[in-house]
Specification:
D-tyrosyl-trna(Tyr) Deacylase, Chain: A, 2 domains, 13 strands, 5-stranded antiparallel beta sheet, alpha+beta, elongated, 11 helices, 6-stranded mixed beta sheet, Beta-lactamase
């Protein structure tokens, strides 16, 4: 067989395998575009380092399988004895260390199919984002958008750039991604200049308002190197390009994203023919200040999908603070933690979750395998269509995001399940986690969580094997 023909055949088989992913996986459909809402901006322990592999974007127009219809898995439950034996054997692998929690649930009924140390609190790493994004969808709603605005100051020529908590706001040198569509600082500058010129204003004094988020911008549970290493930026309501000096590059992050974005905005206004003050100062916009211009983010459901597929730390932290605002808590790390727990309680998850950040970078977070798998089951339920972006945003084994980097599901015991598992990864020093969903061979939708936080080196191949066992049960 010619090399080209073989490549075409293998590619075709891979695509067909993806298209056979279980019908229990919920995807984003046009339902989410109905009646889109716009959010108005309201007046110790172990050293850990994130090692989440750089995801390879497999698709540019949206998550894989985004147009599949949602159906509940109604096949028979897998045989517990066989599944229990296979999972127990795999959990005995030394690579997992001695502190592991594991759960497999029937997504439809919530029944435990398998459990081992299920209620133990374990450092979840980036699987924390499952909790954060589920809470964001439940609290904010899937159609809410985040607005960055420019308002009139007290003086005729005074304008104020108001941060709306959208870290994906694209700066002047950013290349627009096709999914999710980003709000643009350049567009905001053009709209602002047009509004000012219509008023006959050609000379302005620019200030910026970063007050939507409160508290420390750096979580106490974060390693000091996270920001200089480019893992995350200090959390600010006003930021562009997620606080990166160079869009798309991991290192470094700027120490003051708000001031950095405001300075860039001043240059953009100047390019629009306005004379702008040399000094750009921080201020607080007057209550009820007239709006001159605004740009809006993609809807929350798209932000959630991006957060999960690419394990985006900055966006996860921003969403956590927006949850805090919606739930009447301070927009801080502590307020976000309380707000997330309150939302989970409304969803029926009242124990097994302790979070101090939204991204999972904190080594102080503790989540049980039971709570993690249960949140995924709730998110995949027909009773909660507002949460379906949790499932559609999870990476697909061997194809997308942090499971599509060429390192996952490559072993002989997991490779046959490529395309049949959808799951969120988590990686810190000595921590490996994997939580998601799959359909048993007879059509039953199952959710799972495998969490280990005393890993000697890496347990990723074992976690892949565990998920593969679920998928072929």
């Amino acid at each position: 067989m010619a090399r080209h023909e073989r490549w075409v055949m293998l590619t075709t088989l891979a695509v067909l395998q993806v298209l056979t992913i279980v019908t229990g996986i919920y995807a984003v459909t046009s339902d989410f575009s109905l009646g889109a809402l716009t959010r108005q901006s309201p007046p110790a322990g172990r050293t850990a380092s994130p090692k989440e592999p750089s995801p390879v974007p497999v698709v540019t127009s949206g998550p894989v399988l985004a147009q599949l219809s949602a159906k509940s898995g109604d096949g028979p439950l897998p045989t517990k004895g066989t599944l229990t034996q296979q999972l127990t054997d795999a959990l005995g692998d030394d690579a997992l260390g001695d502190h592991v929690g594991a759960v497999v649930l029937d997504a439809s009924t919530g029944e435990r199919i398998f459990a081992s140390n299920a209620d133990a609190g374990i450092v979840p790493a980036s699987t924390t984002k499952v909790i954060t994004t589920a809470a964001a969808l439940a609290s904010l709603g899937p159609d809410t958008k985040l607005a960055t605005r420019v308002v009139q100051g007290t003086a005729p020529g005074a304008v104020i750039l108001v941060g709306g908590g959208d870290p994906l706001l694209a700066g002047p040198s950013a290349k627009q991604t096709s999914y999710p569509k980003q709000a643009s600082l350049a567009t905001l500058a053009a709209r602002t200049a047009a509004a000012l010129k219509a008023k006959g204003v050609k000379k302005v004094t620019l200030s910026y308002d970063d007050s939507l988020f409160t508290g420390t911008p750096i979580c106490p549970g974060w390693k000091p190197g996270y920001i200089p290493d480019g893992e995350v930026a200090p959390v600010h309501a006003l930021a562009m390009d997620e606080g990166r000096r160079t869009p798309g590059q991991r290192q470094p992050r700027v120490p003051d994203p708000a001031a950095y974005a405001a300075t860039a905005f001043a240059r953009l206004l100047a390019k629009q023919g306005l004379s702008v003050s040399r000094t750009v100062k921080e201020t607080t916009a007057p209550a009820g200040a007239a709006e001159l211009a605004r740009v809006e983010s993609a809807p929350v459901y798209a932000l959630v999908e991006h957060t999960l597929t690419f394990s985006d730390n900055d966006l996860a932290e921003a969403l956590a603070r927006h949850i805090a605002i919606k739930e009447g808590q301070p927009a801080s790390f502590d307020g976000a933690s309380k707000a997330v727990l309150a939302v989970l309680a409304r969803l029926g998850v009242t124990k097994g979750v302790l979070v101090t950040d939204g991204s999972g970078l904190s080594i102080r977070n503790r989540i049980s395998a039971e709570a993690m798998a249960r949140v995924i089951a709730i998110a995949s339920s027909p009773a909660h269509p507002e949460l379906r972006a949790v499932a559609s945003g999870m990476p697909i084994a061997g194809f997308s995001g942090t499971l599509g980097n060429g390192r996952r599901f490559v072993g002989a015991d997991s490779r046959p399940q490529v395309g049949l598992v959808r799951a969120k990864t988590g990686t810190l020093n000595n921590v490996n986690t994997l939580a998601g969903l799959a359909t048993a061979k007879d059509g039953r939708l199952l959710t799972f969580a495998f969490l280990a936080d005393a890993v000697p080196v890496t347990a990723e191949p074992v976690l892949d094997r565990l998920a593969a066992i679920v998928a072929r049960s």
